[in-house]
UniProtKB/TrEMBL annotation:
Domain FPG-type: 285-319
UniProt keywords, alphabetically: DNA damage, DNA repair, DNA-binding, Glycosidase, Hydrolase, Lyase, Metal-binding, Multifunctional enzyme, Zinc, Zinc-finger
Pfam families: Fapy_DNA_glyco (PF01149), H2TH (PF06831), zf-FPG_IleRS (PF06827)
Protein name: DNA-(apurinic or apyrimidinic site) lyase
Amino acid sequence: MPEGHSVHRIARQFALHFVGKQVQASSPQGRFAEGAAQLDGRTMIAARAVGKQMFLEFDSARFLRVHLGMYGAWDFAGDITADASSARIGQANQRGTVVGEFEDSLGSIGAPRRTRLRMSEQETLAPEITEFPPAPIGAVRVRLLTDASVADLRGPTACEVIDPPQVEAVLAKLGPDPLVDDPGEGERRFVQTVRSKSTPIALLLMDQSVVSGIGNVFRAELLFRNRIEPHTPGKQLTEEQAVALWRDWTHLLATAVEHGQMLTMEGLDEEAFRRALSSQADRHWVYKRTGLPCRICGTGIVMEEIGGRKLYWCPKDQA
């Protein structure tokens, strides 16, 4: 499932190439025909990501809310920018950088070009297109088209047209997002919520009403980086531990938006950094390393299921 950084990067792609432009909306597969008709011919005026939720605002107070879920993805094509992380959304303004040709990374950045880019959990760049707009591929739920760019959505968990009160109702259920909320207020809300609950911290970090945007990868890596036993009830964390988790999440999220990768190992030399960008196996401390020796103490990494999702952790360093 795409985690928070992916959705922020997608919103920035819309900010660069769709906001301020009149959009033709359609539903090639037919399942979103009524919703597309409400957006067709309208101007997109804003694009916003909050955690794993994205809101595309159109004139006449209509919003397209999208949650990609496990299988959703946006395909962009036409005159698009391969890395949109430098676009400003909300209070964030990270500068995008991609180094070389890496697994699941973009091949280039900079000026727009006629290409095809898939953005979901990972980002992949396809060969340049030969005609515009390209024909829809697969079951496209909704197509958004301008005179120069097109975005195709397939496989989302949620895709609906809503009004401002409905947007506020969705936002009210979400925990703070470091790239959207005031940093001090976001930290206060997170710490207060976590330390009031008896639920294991491993479950709290995946609860989008507690904190927005964290998924399975970041959950495992945050707990390891902060040496926290995953089953610890939230209310047993010290204030210092809870603050450290929030600030580490703030840092990792910004880094992931910058690089387009969930890069959670730091202090790497140049060669190790290149390996980390090119291969998931060299990118994380514990995620998907079941049975392999801990990179710190050598103890075998444990995998268990909690809340229906896989959890990876070191039973010694996180004891």
